[in-house]
């Protein structure tokens, strides 16, 4: 962190002081931790918004008879962890969602899982809870048993109060949770007139698997495995963020070679997913040429993963302290040769795609997300960067090995499906260069640092740029090397609400391509 | 358009085929699957994929079955959009409690005779998630399962072997 960057925290602390919002500064492993009184919770958000701070994540924790409520903010690559403590006797807290729309679903999740009452929340309907546990029962309370008390058959969530629309010619289309394609489950409720979408409401939570609860009491290795399955397509991203947080809490530095290999893994994951998505976007407008070509390239890429790293999707390649598999010289040569080949193939395919007028007709101007809306919802990754959000953890808060390389972060303001398609292509090009640089930097050395048990209560935040965007993971250790709290914030949590906006005034048949252009994770959202 | 046709022509056919095998295992599997399909399923089966709580990794590999390398449709196996058109349900994930009724209804909507394949470690035995307040664990805890294909996630080849296992009964 350089001096210029940290300036805003100094000024902001002064401003908070003058407005009567007292901040107690606590040092934790990675990030500044500011603790405030609960009655200043909303006021803090108002001041933060004035200072252009970005709302990053929110979560809570049950410790004895108190609840720690956390929110994370960021500006210029500097993250601040904000905390307040409320007593179990009175679980009230002023809502920050009134100030930051991005905080809305997160607060609803905390409300469902902890029973915190966010006063003044603009939409306090339940979110993660369907019918698997009763209303006044909260799974993340320490006295809630991990097995719960489920009914033999969990009833469907029939009485969720969806937003209604009335009027001549207005009709509703319910979609899901079981979709027509090979995709994850979720429910979408459209209000339409003719083909035009008047409103879309997402109802997620169908793949809620209790990840936060079953993380409690795990060892670091076991948690890394679980983190790698928060969202299977982003296994490297989540596993890395969790391991980073655990390593910081334990005071471990990973060997430089391990960091470089993690970088290669992360960029390979980015390329594989972007290739898949680019094909799928074209498939959703029935342009099969591109779908076949991109799935072919993705398959080749995954086969190299299997050869070099012994797993097509790279699961469990990152472990606490480093990585599992080393890279031989011949593997490096294979990876480099693959990159040359992929560049050549893409330079054939992309002009053919670019020149196709029917594709142009479907992708351009469809699903437009204005930069202001993207900013208000804290939209991340390629979705944000296609709508002017110049954010990338790899550059803004560089972590090894990204601190050793120079690279560009592509940003556009076009904000439509086409922009999100081409953003992926630009990101592939950057990722390929990064892999080459990481290979060039590889020097012989260890790939695993020795683990040491972190002190009881130590906590940390891990931040990485996953392929969908910024992943923020919070870890607190309990006694004996066991996890007390794990909260992974997938970028999808912030990107899903943007979908509700960008489909407005589009036609219903364009919903699949709009959805694919965003490609949020259901599993990463529902936890 | 010329560029497009040129790319199609120069790419050629990458599908790992019967006659000019690039991958012996795939060829062998394909022939065997086709033989059983012809004999017992009148030439084809229709699959409805149901994600009942997976992390999406299994879906990615099921998708890969349709890429031009595996092109599973040439063996008479195709994916359909409705359970009402399906012979086989391919179920992934531990069954989340929030998906339990949806899975039961999908199963009921599938006409008899029907088969259920549990795909991936989570579907086979609960995997990393097991049984909890939010998860029913293995698919067999919710609906009858004919074949389980383990793996986290199973590779496309493992998926094809599993489907063959189903046909051999």
From TrEMBL, chain A:
<protein>
    <submittedName>
        <fullName>Formate hydrogenlyase subunit 5</fullName>
    </submittedName>
</protein>
<dbReference type="GO" id="GO:0016151">
    <property type="term" value="F:nickel cation binding"/>
</dbReference>
<keyword id="KW-0456">Lyase</keyword>
<dbReference type="InterPro" id="IPR001268">
    <property type="entry name" value="NADH_UbQ_OxRdtase_30kDa_su"/>
</dbReference>
<dbReference type="InterPro" id="IPR037232">
    <property type="entry name" value="NADH_quin_OxRdtase_su_C/D-like"/>
</dbReference>
<keyword id="KW-0460">Magnesium</keyword>
<dbReference type="Pfam" id="PF00329">
    <property type="entry name" value="Complex1_30kDa"/>
</dbReference>
<dbReference type="Pfam" id="PF00346">
    <property type="entry name" value="Complex1_49kDa"/>
</dbReference>
<dbReference type="InterPro" id="IPR052197">
    <property type="entry name" value="ComplexI_49kDa-like"/>
</dbReference>
<feature type="domain" description="NADH:ubiquinone oxidoreductase 30kDa subunit">
    <location>
        <begin position="58"/>
        <end position="149"/>
    </location>
</feature>
<dbReference type="GO" id="GO:0051287">
    <property type="term" value="F:NAD binding"/>
</dbReference>
<dbReference type="GO" id="GO:0016829">
    <property type="term" value="F:lyase activity"/>
</dbReference>
<dbReference type="InterPro" id="IPR029014">
    <property type="entry name" value="NiFe-Hase_large"/>
</dbReference>
<feature type="binding site">
    <location>
        <position position="212"/>
    </location>
    <ligand>
        <name>Mg(2+)</name>
    </ligand>
</feature>
<feature type="domain" description="NADH-quinone oxidoreductase subunit D">
    <location>
        <begin position="285"/>
        <end position="450"/>
    </location>
</feature>
<dbReference type="GO" id="GO:0016651">
    <property type="term" value="F:oxidoreductase activity, acting on NAD(P)H"/>
</dbReference>
<dbReference type="InterPro" id="IPR001135">
    <property type="entry name" value="NADH_Q_OxRdtase_suD"/>
</dbReference>
<keyword id="KW-0560">Oxidoreductase</keyword>
<dbReference type="GO" id="GO:0008137">
    <property type="term" value="F:NADH dehydrogenase (ubiquinone) activity"/>
</dbReference>
<keyword id="KW-0520">NAD</keyword>
<dbReference type="Pfam" id="PF00374">
    <property type="entry name" value="NiFeSe_Hases"/>
</dbReference>
<dbReference type="InterPro" id="IPR001501">
    <property type="entry name" value="Ni-dep_hyd_lsu"/>
</dbReference>
UniProtKB/TrEMBL annotation, chain B:
<protein>
    <submittedName>
        <fullName>Hydrogenase-4 component I</fullName>
        <ecNumber>1.-.-.-</ecNumber>
    </submittedName>
</protein>
<dbReference type="Pfam" id="PF01058">
    <property type="entry name" value="Oxidored_q6"/>
</dbReference>
<keyword id="KW-0560">Oxidoreductase</keyword>
<dbReference type="GO" id="GO:0046872">
    <property type="term" value="F:metal ion binding"/>
</dbReference>
<keyword id="KW-0411">Iron-sulfur</keyword>
<dbReference type="GO" id="GO:0051539">
    <property type="term" value="F:4 iron, 4 sulfur cluster binding"/>
</dbReference>
<dbReference type="GO" id="GO:0016491">
    <property type="term" value="F:oxidoreductase activity"/>
</dbReference>
<dbReference type="InterPro" id="IPR006137">
    <property type="entry name" value="NADH_UbQ_OxRdtase-like_20kDa"/>
</dbReference>
<comment type="similarity">
    <text>Belongs to the complex I 20 kDa subunit family.</text>
</comment>
<dbReference type="InterPro" id="IPR052375">
    <property type="entry name" value="Complex_I_20kDa-like"/>
</dbReference>
<keyword id="KW-0408">Iron</keyword>
<keyword id="KW-0479">Metal-binding</keyword>
<keyword id="KW-0004">4Fe-4S</keyword>
<feature type="domain" description="NADH:ubiquinone oxidoreductase-like 20kDa subunit">
    <location>
        <begin position="55"/>
        <end position="164"/>
    </location>
</feature>
């Amino acid at each position: 962190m350089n001096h210029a960057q940290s300036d805003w925290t100094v000024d902001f602390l002064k401003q908070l002081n003058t407005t009567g919002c007292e901040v107690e500064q606590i040092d934790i492993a990675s990030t500044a931790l500011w603790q405030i009184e609960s009655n200043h919770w909303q006021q803090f958000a108002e001041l933060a918004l004035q200072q252009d701070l970005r709302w990053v994540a929110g979560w809570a924790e049950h410790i004895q008879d108190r609840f720690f409520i956390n929110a994370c903010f960021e500006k210029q690559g500097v993250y601040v962890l904000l905390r307040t403590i409320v007593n179990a006797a009175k679980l009230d807290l002023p809502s920050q969602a009134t100030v930051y729309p991005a905080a809305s679903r997160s607060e609803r999740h905390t409300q469902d899982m902890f029973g915190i009452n966010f006063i003044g929340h603009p939409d306090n309907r339940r979110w993660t809870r369907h019918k698997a546990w009763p209303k006044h029962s909260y799974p993340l309370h320490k006295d809630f048993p991990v097995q719960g008390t489920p009914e033999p058959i969990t009833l469907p969530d029939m009485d969720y109060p969806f937003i209604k629309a009335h009027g001549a010619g207005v009709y509703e289309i319910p979609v899901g949770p079981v979709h027509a394609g090979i995709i994850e489950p979720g429910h979408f409720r459209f209000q339409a007139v003719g083909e035009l979408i008047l409103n879309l409401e997402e109802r997620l939570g169908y793949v809620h698997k209790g990840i936060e609860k079953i993380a409690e009491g795990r060892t670091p290795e076991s948690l890394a495995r679980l983190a790698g399955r928060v969202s299977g397509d982003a296994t490297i991203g989540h596993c890395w963020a969790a391991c980073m947080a655990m390593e910081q809490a334990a005071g471990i530095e990973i060997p430089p070679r391990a960091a470089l290999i993690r970088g290669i893994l992360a960029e390979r994951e980015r390329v594989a997913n972007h290739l898949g998505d680019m094909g799928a976007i074209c498939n959703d407008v029935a342009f099969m040429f591109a779908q076949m070509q991109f799935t072919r390239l993705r398959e080749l890429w995954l086969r190299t993963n299997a050869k070099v790293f012994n797993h097509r999707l790279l699961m469990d390649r990152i472990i606490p302290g480093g990585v599992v598999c080393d890279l031989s010289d011949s593997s490096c040569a294979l990876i480099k040769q693959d990159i040359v080949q992929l560049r050549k193939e893409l330079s054939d395919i992309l002009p053919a795609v670019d020149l196709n007028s029917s594709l142009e007709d479907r992708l351009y101007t469809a699903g437009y997300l204005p930069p202001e809306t993207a900013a208000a919802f804290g939209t991340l990754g390629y979705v944000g960067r296609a709508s002017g959000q110049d954010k990338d953890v790899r550059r803004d808060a560089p972590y090894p090995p990204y601190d050793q390389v120079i690279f560009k972060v592509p940003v556009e303001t076009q904000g439509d499906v086409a922009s999100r398609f081409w953003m992926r292509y630009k990101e592939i090009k950057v990722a390929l260069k990064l892999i080459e640089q990481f290979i060039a930097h590889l020097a012989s050395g260890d790939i695993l640092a020795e683990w040491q048990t972190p002190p009881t209560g130590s906590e940390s935040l891990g931040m990485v740029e996953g392929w969908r965007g910024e992943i923020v993971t919070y870890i607190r250790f309990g006694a004996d090397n066991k996890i007390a709290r794990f909260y992974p914030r997938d970028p999808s949590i912030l990107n899903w609400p943007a979908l509700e906006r960008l489909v407005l005034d589009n036609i219903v048949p364009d919903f699949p391509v709009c959805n694919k252009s965003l490609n949020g994770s259901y599993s990463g959202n529902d936890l | 358009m010329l560029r497009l046709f040129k790319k199609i022509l120069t790419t050629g056919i990458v599908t790992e085929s019967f006659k000019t095998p690039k991958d012996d295992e795939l060829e062998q599997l394909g022939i065997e699957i086709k033989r059983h399909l012809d004999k017992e399923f009148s030439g084809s089966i229709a699959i409805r994929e149901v994600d009942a709580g997976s992390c999406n990794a299994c879906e990615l590999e099921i998708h890969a079955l349709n890429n031009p390398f595996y092109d599973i449709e040439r063996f008479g196996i195709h994916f359909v959009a409705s359970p009402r058109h399906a012979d086989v349900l391919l179920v992934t994930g531990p069954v989340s409690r929030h998906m339990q009724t949806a899975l039961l209804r999908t199963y009921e909507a599938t006409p008899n005779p029907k088969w259920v394949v549990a795909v991936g470690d989570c579907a086979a035995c609960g995997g990393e998630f097991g049984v909890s307040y939010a998860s029913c664990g293995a698919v067999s805890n919710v609906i009858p399962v004919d074949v389980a294909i383990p793996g986290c996630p199973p590779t496309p080849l493992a998926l094809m072997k599993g489907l063959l296992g189903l046909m051999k009964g």
